[in-house]
Design a protein that fits this description.
This protein has 222 residues and is an alpha+beta fold. The chain has helices spanning 2-17, 22-41, 49-54, 118-122, 180-187, 193-197, 206-219, and strands at residues 57-83, 86-87, 91-115, 129-130, 135-137, 156-167, 175-178. The termini are far apart.
Amino acid sequence: MRRYILTILVLGLAATTFAQSKSELDDQVRKLMAQFDSLQANTEACIPAEKLKKATGVIVMDRTKGGLVFGYEQGFGVAMVKNKGEWSPCSFMNSHEGSFGAQIGGKSTFCVILLMTDAARDRLIASKVDFGGEAAGTGGSSSGGVGDTFTEEPPMRVYGESKGLYGGATIKGGSVAADDKANQTYYGQFYSIKDILFENKVKPSETATDFVKKIEAATKGK
């Protein structure tokens, strides 16, 4: 019972953490852009230009893990996809996980999930996207991935950097879902992730357009 109550409390806190205004959401996206720049400046962790160019979609997440006896993990990010060679507007995404056990500390992980196939891209329409067991990572001391080893191109590739120290229960892989509240705040009314990413029902914001420019520059090795 105690575990159940703590789970509800922590996940409820995580769900309300990102109730923000449009300008605050823009600031969060700019933070993700700065983290993307930092990742690309890291020769051990950077995403190869050819992989980024081949990607049919991208999810960029900033995830925080911590805990004292009871653990939590929450994340904020955005997803964009390519439709006929053009990048879509961004859909806000989140992730929440909880665990119970002997654990202490805190850790922040910035990751970029490349969707390498049309099927992987189209799965964003689902209510939740799991990427454990289907993703390959880059390896290295400051970057890494989750999942199995593939002889062919995996559906997803994960690149990222971690800061901090965390000991205790870990979750292999992970999942993300559309942040409907953030999307509604940002676009002024409710739009589904399908509306935003695939149906061209919203226009890209200036901030999202700037992010696309960074991604396009990175595909050229800049």
